[in-house]
Amino acid sequence: MSAAPPLPPDESGAASASEPQPEKPPARRPRRWRRRLAIAAIVAVVGLAVLLALLPRIAGAPVVYNRVLAMVNGGLQGAVQIDGLSLSWGGPIEVRGLTITDPQRQQVVRVERVSAAAGLWRLITSTMAFGEVVIDAPSIVIHQRQDGQITLAQALAAREPAEPRPAGALPEPRGRLVVRNGRVQVTREGAGSYEVRDIGGQVDLATLSDIAAKLELTLADGAKLATDAELRGLVTQGELRPEGATGTLRVAADRRIELASLAALAGQPGIGGGLTLAV
Q1: What is the CA radius of gyration of the chain?
Q2: SS3 label, residue 89
Q3: Whole-angstrom distance between the N-terminal and C-terminal Cα of the chain?
Q4: In angstroms, rounded to a whole number, what is the distance separating the alpha carbons of residues 198 and 156?
């Protein structure tokens, strides 16, 4: 009996088993771009917060505020300079050594220190509600030249005349101004000078329609003067209305005020005598 012939190889069996099987694609790893984007966003937020926190210190650096002052002085006939500046978001704000010079570079204003209890955030969000501002040792020279010009006004005048603009509503500032150990010297060419010193007091503004002030000073002859004033209704609906203003004024001096120096300053050197005030 003859042997059966060999069967042909099964194409779907042995032949296919010997062929290499296709590899399965590797499992996809979760995309990392979302994580990187989140990290970048966190870094940006933290960096912005640090920048905002340091912004007052950066603005208070001499290289920064001197550049700002250079831009301001470029538009003035005089010049403004400061010795130091301290800023913070929550307060206080302090300016040291404020000096203003006239076009002839003569000093007309010197203030040792100006401090504001409010910080930058309050001034930015509520510019008219400035809180309490203290002005220490201000010294002001009001000099009138023979042509009638006041050098202090010239110092703050613009180099180029500005185009006239329609007047808008007056601001409504609210706060308190405190002056300590001030000095004012008034001079006229050819007419001598008059000095008022030891100026101290405060001005309370509940807007320009409600002003109260107390002031003490020493005149050139040594007489001490005290004033107490209240003024209401000066501004109505954003417009200056002096005819409708009302108020009170009390003035008292501790002794007779000599008029000779004041008369000489006014160009009347022959006038003498004195004045007693208790109003």
Answers
A1: 38
A2: coil
A3: 155
A4: 25
Phi, psi of 210 (to 5 degrees): -145, 95
**160 or 264, which is more confident?**
160
pLDDT band of residue 168 (cuts 50, 70, 90) is: confident
Residue of 202, 255, 203, 204 whose CA lies nearest to 225 = 255
Helices (H) then strands (E): counts for the chain:
6, 14
Instruction: Identify any residues that bridge with 211 across adjacent strands, giving them in sequence order.
Output: 205, 231
CA dist 254 and 276 (Å) reads: 9
pLDDT in tens, 102-117: 999 999 999 999 999 8
Alpha helices in 78-190 (DSSP H): 120-125, 151-156
Q: Are 174 and 205 in contact (CB under 8 A)?
A: yes
How far apart (Å, rounded) are the C-alpha atoms in residues 159 and 152?
14
If you ran DSSP here, which 8-state letter would residue 164 be given? P
pLDDT of 162: 74
Other C-beta atoms lying within 10 Å of the C-beta of residue 182: 20
As given in the structure block, the two tokens for residue 67 are 């550049």
Instruction: Report the candidate in 231, 226, 260 with the shortest Cα–Cα distance to residue 245.
Output: 231
